[in-house]
Amino acid sequence: MPLPLALIATLTASTAFAPSSAAPAVQITKVYYDSPGVDRRSNTSLNGEYVTILNTTRRPVDLEQWTIKDKTGYTYTFGLDAVLGPGKKLTLRTGQGSDTPSTSYWERRAYVWNNDKDIAYLRDPDGKLIDSCSYNSSRTDYRNCL
């Protein structure tokens, strides 16, 4: 017995656009890997290098013990007070500074991100990969990851 046309339309609409997998609750949105100007390890230049993450949910995400790591193994671990508000972004800058709700500082005195190719990894406290963003270009200074 043939299916009614309305039922076929409903089944098609509900399955045709089903996502293959859900987006992570926290995503890497940008890696600015080649800070502006000449690389002389000044704090301003170091802080021109950064990774931005976004909370895509409607709830705060406690980032305590989450990590951002590059392909070489340089690792930043978020501390006790790192909470990412719903829909909010947080920028992790390579150099030194005072943390705020929207900016954290790695407190490094050397660059992390290679100027031509690298991968940023975001992991939860259990070490599970939440998101990553790779780039392979020396023609631009940053990569938008979304």
What report would you give on this structure?
The protein is mainly β and 146 residues long. The chain has helices spanning 5-16, 43-47; strands at residues 26-32, 50-55, 61-62, 67-69, 75-77, 83-84, 89-93, 103-105, 117-123, 129-136, 142-144. The strands form three sheets. It has a five-stranded mixed sheet with strand order 8-7-2-1-11, with no helix packed on it. Strand 9 (117-123) and strand 10 form a beta hairpin.
Question: What is the strand and helix layout of this fold?
Answer:
Elements: H1 5-16, E1 26-32, H2 43-47, E2 50-55, E3 61-62, E4 67-69, E5 75-77, E6 83-84, E7 89-93, E8 103-105, E9 117-123, E10 129-136, E11 142-144
Parallel strand pairs: 7-8
Antiparallel strand pairs: 1-2, 1-11, 2-7, 3-6, 4-5, 4-9, 9-10
